[in-house]
Recover the amino acids of this structure.
């Protein structure tokens, strides 16, 4: 029986080309890579089931590829069950489960989520909730709208910045619903359609999503995760001059995904370059407290200490305490913060009081965070050991903090590996997720926030998936037009 034609929307060739980014970079197997890039979009929910795909010729034109290659990619997608077609009705996205090759239910347990670099709630959360419930009584008589956040919480956040070398008052802090919310608020205030935003490459994918959703244009400056250099400060300087971005978005502490950290000298130079250009910088410090080697207070001072009054810090309780609290903050000059508070009214009217009370309690218990750091250090070393043992030709620089290993593979197969891994029971984020235009196919991010046995199992499954990808018959390859 022929497949029924669904009533889903249609995606145009140019739109699909934008979603796929530079899937061809480094590719030796055009059709297989294109199919994998489309499968990833389906698995991510970006291409909903039933979406009608462009005709072969339209897609070939949009991608600048031959029709032979498009045809081969569609054959592969049909074979894997991701696409169904009917003569005269075209092709559409299908549910992959039924015809997909490979073991969908791997031996040794269910699927492992290796996409989130995040830990469960920190020890003591339940007790903090109990205390907060008692404290809540003091607030029930107020209207509850606190667009800047509870004073007690802002005092603690301000004190921490001051301790780290950036004198701060509570009037310079606004509590937000997580660091991502904070970033989106700043983005709304600083950039509009067509504006440029300087970013590191690779960088945090949701920031890229937000920049694109605001119709702004991310301008990447490459990091060098394998060398000693890390940040290319001359490259940032050149990009500031050439692209005149509205602001720069930088993650200089245990960067996601590379784990790199900029040293004090680098911060001085980077801060000077940004101040000279009078370019605001949004410094994302979501991971700064996850220093796995030393005392976080002994680390380099915040970049904002060197970048002048246009620096805006974004912080979060998600990685230190719990993502489910949905709490973060912005630290800026009083002038900028006042403007941000006004801009916030267009989006929301403050963060929940109860969660802020819980976080205030949690911040009082530094020992729990110390234990979390120790645990994560063990997790990091366990993951590094598993990769060295099972995937010995992958390389990485052991990060001193953060939550992920950024691994370089001998072949540019990251997207195909991510797709194959899903059918071997591991969800993993390929390098292309972290690039402005995709690419980064030699790289893959492995988080170390799961228990060591689970990570070991995930790495074993990745090894099997990698072998299946590398064993892809060359006959599937087609020349790129
Ligand atoms: C660099 C970076 N910024 C922001 C976020 C989002 O944090 P939040 O949960 O506070 O919104 C993350 C989460 O992974 C991150 O790694």
């Amino acid at each position: 029986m022929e497949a029924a034609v669904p009533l889903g929307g249609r995606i145009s060739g140019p739109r699909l080309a934008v979603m796929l980014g530079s899937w061809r970079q480094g590719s030796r197997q055009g059709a297989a890579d294109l199919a994998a890039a489309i499968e990833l979009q389906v698995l991510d929910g970006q291409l909903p089931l039933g979406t009608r795909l462009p005709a072969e010729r339209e897609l070939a034109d949009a991608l600048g590829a031959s029709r032979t290659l498009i045809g081969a990619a569609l054959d592969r997608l049909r074979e894997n069950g991701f696409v169904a077609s009917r003569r005269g009705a075209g092709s559409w996205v299908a549910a992959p489960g039924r015809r997909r090759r490979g073991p969908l239910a791997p031996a040794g347990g269910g699927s492992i989520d290796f996409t989130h670099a995040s830990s469960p709630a920190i020890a003591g959360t339940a007790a903090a909730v109990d205390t907060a419930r008692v404290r809540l009584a003091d607030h029930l008589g107020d209207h509850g709208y606190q667009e800047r956040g509870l004073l007690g919480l802002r005092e603690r956040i301000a004190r921490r910045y001051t301790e780290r070398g950036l004198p701060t008052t509570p009037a310079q802090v606004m509590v937000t619903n997580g660091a991502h919310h904070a970033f989106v608020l700043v983005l709304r205030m600083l950039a509009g359609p067509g504006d440029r935003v300087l970013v590191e490459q690779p960088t945090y994918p949701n920031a890229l999503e937000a920049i694109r959703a605001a119709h702004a244009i991310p301008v990447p400056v490459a990091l060098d995760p394998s060398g000693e250099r890390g940040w290319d400060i001359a490259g940032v300087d050149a990009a500031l001059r050439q692209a005149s971005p509205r602001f720069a978005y930088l993650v200089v502490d245990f960067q996601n995904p590379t784990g790199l950290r900029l040293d004090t000298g680098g911060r001085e130079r980077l801060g000077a370059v940004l101040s000279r250009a009078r370019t605001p910088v949004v410094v994302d410090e979501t991971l700064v407290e996850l220093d796995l080697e030393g005392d976080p207070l002994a680390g380099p001072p915040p970049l904002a200490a060197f970048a002048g009054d246009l620096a805006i810090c974004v912080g979060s309780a998600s990685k230190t305490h719990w993502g489910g609290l949905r709490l973060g903050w912005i630290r800026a000059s009083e002038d900028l913060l006042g403007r941000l508070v006004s801009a916030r009214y267009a989006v929301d009217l403050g963060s929940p009081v109860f969660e802020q009370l819980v976080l205030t309690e949690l911040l009082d218990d530094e020992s729990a965070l110390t234990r979390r750091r120790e645990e994560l250090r063990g997790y990091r070393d366990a993951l590094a050991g598993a990769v060295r043992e099972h995937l010995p030709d992958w390389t990485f620089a052991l990060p001193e903090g953060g939550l992920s290993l950024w691994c370089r593979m001998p072949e540019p197969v990251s997207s195909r590996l991510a797709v194959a891994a899903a059918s071997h029971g591991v969800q993993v984020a390929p390098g292309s997720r972290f690039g402005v235009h995709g690419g980064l196919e030699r790289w893959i991010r492995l988080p170390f926030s799961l228990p060591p046995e689970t990570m070991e199992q995930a790495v074993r499954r990745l090894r099997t998936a990698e072998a299946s990808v590398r064993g892809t018959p060359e006959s599937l390859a087609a020349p790129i037009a």
The chain has a mean pLDDT of 90. Residues 237 and 273 are 6 Å apart (CA to CA). The longest helix spans residues 366-390.
